[in-house]
Fold this sequence. Notes:
alpha+beta; five-stranded mixed beta sheet; 11% strand; globular; disordered N terminus
Amino acid sequence: xxxxxxxxxxxxxGAITATMLPTVIAEQLEEGQDWRAIKPAQPxxxxxxxxxxxxxxxxxxxxxxxRPFVKSWKSKLPEDVAFxxxxxxxxxxxxxxxxxxxxxxxxxxxxxxxxxxVFHALQKERVKLHTEPATLNWLKSKAIDVEAFSQVYxxxxxxxxxxxxxYLAEKYAINSVPTLTVGGRYAVLGQRVKELPxxxxxxxxxxxxxxxxxxxx
Length: 217
């Protein structure tokens, strides 16, 4: 989904005023408006599950605004749905370092503790976390063992995960964030939505579609 400044302001207002997910999107989903097909369809990493991927970046303010809605939404997903975040880099070093921060926190079991705080630091406090020294300096205030973090941050495992995320972004033809994909077959476009949570309503409908497609296969 590509957001103009006007549409972003509309979404930001919706994020402030909305207290729950919208109950309906009246119209039938339209390909090219609400969603696009992923061609070719991509295999998931969770066999037997409908995999939902959230392509995002800490450097994206829209991702930050969507995050609280996603947190609530993913906690209520059905048993046959697996949710996973994929930090994108768009081959930009600054965003690659943010992806490195994400995977490092994940590897150290601190992601849920600090995920929102990273967004807040970047988007609200304007803390620059695009380099290792700046990131380590910020983490010191969080009582994190920065030496252990630095080892993970520069590890082969984290670098491999970043390479995998770049590969997925290419295969799924991701050119903007946030983007939600469903079942390796559909990507949410949301060109007609009025509020950020509407993107999740579309994702729910695409989960149903993926489930129906699987039953017919």
